[in-house]
Backbone:
């Protein structure tokens, strides 16, 4: 079975495609000092880029996991997410409060999509 790795690093790949699916690793914003809305937009743009690189798009998302270090950011994150998600093809989604690797990070997301 063919396995494709995208944006490989020494520790991990940002996305891995296999068996008709692409698995996107936890994506975080470049500007760690930005607010929740800007960080959410950056994370979603990163997901779009990885989906495109793998040969798919957000209409084929199957699942998204959202990690927020402060669940009070839920509504602000959703204000950006809701304008991004394909309303005709929304994925399954979970959102949990979790401590992230950097205390300045406001959101991290993983995703799985069909190719």
Residues:
């Amino acid at each position: 079975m063919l396995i494709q790795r995208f944006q490989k690093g020494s520790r991990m790949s940002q996305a891995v495609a296999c068996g008709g699916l692409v698995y996107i690793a936890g994506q975080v914003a470049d500007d760690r000092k930005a607010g929740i809305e800007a960080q959410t937009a950056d994370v979603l743009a990163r997901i779009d880029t990885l989906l495109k690189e793998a040969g798919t798009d957000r209409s084929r998302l199957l699942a998204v996991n959202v990690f927020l270090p402060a669940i009070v950011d839920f509504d602000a994150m959703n204000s950006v997410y809701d304008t991004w998600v394909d309303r005709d093809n929304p994925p399954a989604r979970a959102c949990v409060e979790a401590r992230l690797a950097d205390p300045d990070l406001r959101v991290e997301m993983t995703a799985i999509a069909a190719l």
Observations:
- Helices lie at 36-54, 74-84.
